[in-house]
């Protein structure tokens, strides 16, 4: 029952997070280069092991004709010739997809149209994900984002992994220190025996979200490791983009 409730909670947090409105200035290079590194360094300080990470960026684009879609596909192919590209269309919708597997991590670029009876909107989206984190990845992914986006995209950084301490031990001995190291103050939380979910505001991160008349820009999920000892975690800014 706890597992089901935890899964549902994570889905709600992710779904709700994406509909919040950004209320600060978004910068491109700094968050991509530093946010995930800050998260990884602080997790390492508390002897955590990173088992997965992701970077996600998104902004609106305007491609109103088939000619513009074809021109955009050609532009992306010229910018990122090492990626595999394809254009898909059907029933008035278009998508451009690019992918490259570097081995330690993968990068995906997508432009997707979404339409309803009133209007059609297209989004340019970027995602990089991998398992073990290496600081050199920040420079590589940062260059992709800087070349890809012309405006100020919404940026999301997220890592997951494990702490060796049991959940109750981590909460009693390390959680306050972790929040302090993240310069984070709690905004909202759900705390139960087998999991914790915390929304917080941290001065380390530039992007902020509106949340119940307060500001927040990071989330932390902690759960008892059901496969063994220790505690699994997910930490993200400004919201979690990895299910936990």
**CATH uppermost class:** Alpha Beta
The coarse overall form would be elongated
Q: Going by CATH, what is the homologous superfamily?
A: YwmB-like
Largest sheet, order of strands side by side?
2-3-4-5-1-6-12-11-8-7
**Helix share bin:** 25-40%
Q: What is the domain tally?
A: 1
Distance between the termini: 15 Å
Task: Using brief descriptors, characterize the structure shown.
alpha+beta, TBP-like, 10-stranded antiparallel beta sheet, 30% helix
Q: Can you offer a commentary on this structure?
A:
With 244 residues, the protein is α+β, with helices and mostly antiparallel strands. It has one domain (2-237): TBP-like, CATH 3.30.2030.10. The protein contains 6 helices and 12 strands. It has a 10-stranded antiparallel β-sheet with strand order 2-3-4-5-1-6-12-11-8-7, sandwiched between helices. Strands 9-10 form a two-stranded antiparallel ribbon. A hairpin with a 3-residue loop joins strand 7 (184-191) and strand 8. Helix 2 runs antiparallel to helix 4 (136-148). 34% of the residues are buried. Mean pLDDT is 82; it is low at 1-31.
Q: What is the topology?
A:
Blueprint: H1 2-17, H2 29-45, E1 49-61, H3 66-79, E2 84-90, E3 93-101, E4 105-115, E5 120-130, H4 136-148, E6 154-163, H5 167-173, H6 175-181, E7 184-191, E8 195-202, E9 209-211, E10 214-216, E11 218-224, E12 231-237
Antiparallel strand pairs: 1-5, 1-6, 2-3, 3-4, 4-5, 6-12, 7-8, 8-11, 9-10, 11-12
Give the gist of this structure.
The protein is α+β, with helices and mostly antiparallel strands and 244 residues long.
